[in-house]
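EI: anyone free to look at a 222-residue chain?
SC: sure, send it
EI:
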Amino acid sequence: MVSDLSLSVKRHHTLSILGKSGCGKTTMLKMIAGLVSLDQGTIKLDGLAVHTMDASKRNIVYLYQEDLLFPHFTVFENIAFGLRIKKVNKEEVNVRVLEMIENLELVGQSEKMPHQLSGGQRQRVSFGRAIITNPSLLLLDEPFGSLDAGTRTNMQKLFRRLADTFSITSLFVTHDLKEAILMGDQIALMDRGNLKIYESKEEFVEDESTGVMEELKFWRTL
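SC: here you go
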């Protein structure tokens, strides 16, 4: 359940949203994406009210833990899919997709099928497919939750680089405290459907209700 929710995200910034399972994070993202209807309120994107629009018209991309790649498409065609739907000409598709593959550090993998890739590589392709269409907002619902620790760290670094390179505006949902701090330009805490946004990471760390100070004290005792 989500109640009395109010938030804004600066353009080209990432807002990390931290919260336990069941606190309403996913419901909030689905409302913004148009997958769940609002009971009341508005959603504006670049000043335009989008809550009455179909999900397909909002120029918002929602990424899950699962990569959801098309199993019968190559890496190249998976990334190119959104551009082809928008009827971008073939030459531009080739240029943009090859540039994206390079940014994803997947050079040499363009003709492989999803089943031939590692979990981290598939998630990279999923990111590329999402970003290449220049969405106004990227919604990330614990996108690295199913990855092992090493791959997760690499994907976190990749996302921060892609966010800077492609000027991404995003909401990054996670239940991992460290990941929230690393991924976000700003941090919010969600608890039982209510959201508190912090003006700075310092304010977030110093708030006793976030548990950051307790965790720091614990690690200092080891």
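EI: Strands lie at 14-18, 44-45, 48-49, 60-63, 137-141, 170-174, 186-191, 194-197.
SC: 👍
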